[in-house]
Every structure is written in structure tokens, then in C-alpha cells.
Amino acid sequence: MPTLISLVAAIIAFRFLPHPGNVAPIGAFALIGGFYLGRRYALIVPIVALFLSDLFLNQQAGYAAFHWPRMIDWAAFLLVGMAALAVRGRGWKMKLGTIFVTPFFFFAVSNFGVWLTGINLAGVPYAKTFGGLIECHGAGLPFLRGTMLGDWAFSALFIAVMHLAAASSKTEPAALVRR
Q1: pLDDT above 70 covers what percent of the chain?
Q2: d(Cα 95, Cα 101) in Å, to the nearest integer?
Q3: Is the pTM of this model over 0.90?
Q4: pLDDT tens string 166-177
Q5: How far apart are CA 77 and CA 59, in angstroms?
Q6: Structural domains in the chain (count)
Q7: Please, which contacts does 166-169 make with residues 24 or more away whose CB atoms are closer than 8 Å?
């Protein structure tokens, strides 16, 4: 449990530090939660970390504590965690595939949410047409690079930390967060 608490605290802290756009540990934490946390905590712990940090970050940015695009993002992170749960015992090829696909899935879902709700950074809603949906996804492309970098780099980092900690304690990585 101390490993889990440390991981949650580190993720929340990272979100408050200056970092390149969309390079964040949240997608990776949703994956790691599904891979390693007990089934009871696999989905809820990453979302709680996201929720708590969002409360403060949204206030600082002048956004409402809860707004539809962010709730769609939370749903996307829940689905990422569910995908990780689905492949948790199926070997590293499946896990690596899930890690690889996650940023693209999140990009598609989050941009769909922006298009659907009409709430975006520019303050001008996209047309509710197929062309508007394509325009929305096109405008989101600069954010995809950061999401890919963040998800892939933090997934590698978290998996390495879990395995190094497990090796030093002579236990399985999942046992570190299930205690």
C-alpha cells in the first residue's frame, strides 16, 4: 500500500509541475492500475488521483470544477483501465499493444467529447457535422504527440519502477500495491 500511495502522490504532484502540453502520467497510471492493482482498486484509484488534481487545476485555470469534456476524458481513462484489466494476465505482447494504442484511443474519445459538447479552448464550437468532427480532430493533433510521449514514457517508467521494487523485495510487482 505505501507504493500505491507514493504513486498517487507523485502523479498528483506531477500535474502541478510545469510540463509540455499533454505529457502527463494519467493515461499510464490508468494502464498500470489495470495491470497491477487489485481488481477492487484498478479503476477507482487512477480516477481518484485524476479527480483530486482536476479539482485544483480546473480552479486555477478558471474552469468549472466539473465540465462535460473533462467527464468524457474521465470516462476514456476508465475505459483505458478496463482495457488494461482485460489484458492483465495475457502476456507482455498484449500489454505492450494496449500501451501503444492507448494515446490514440484517448485522442479519439476526448476530441469526440470536445466536438460533441461544443466546449473547446478556442471558445468556438465545431459544426455538428462530419466535417466539424474532422476539423476538431485535426485541431487536436498537436496534443496527440504529448499524449503519446506521456503515456509511453510514463508507462515504461512505472513498469520499470514496479519491477525494480519487486526485485529488491523479492515479490511480484502486483504484490507491491496489493498489500
Answers
A1: 92
A2: 10
A3: no
A4: 788 776 665 556
A5: 21
A6: 1
A7: none
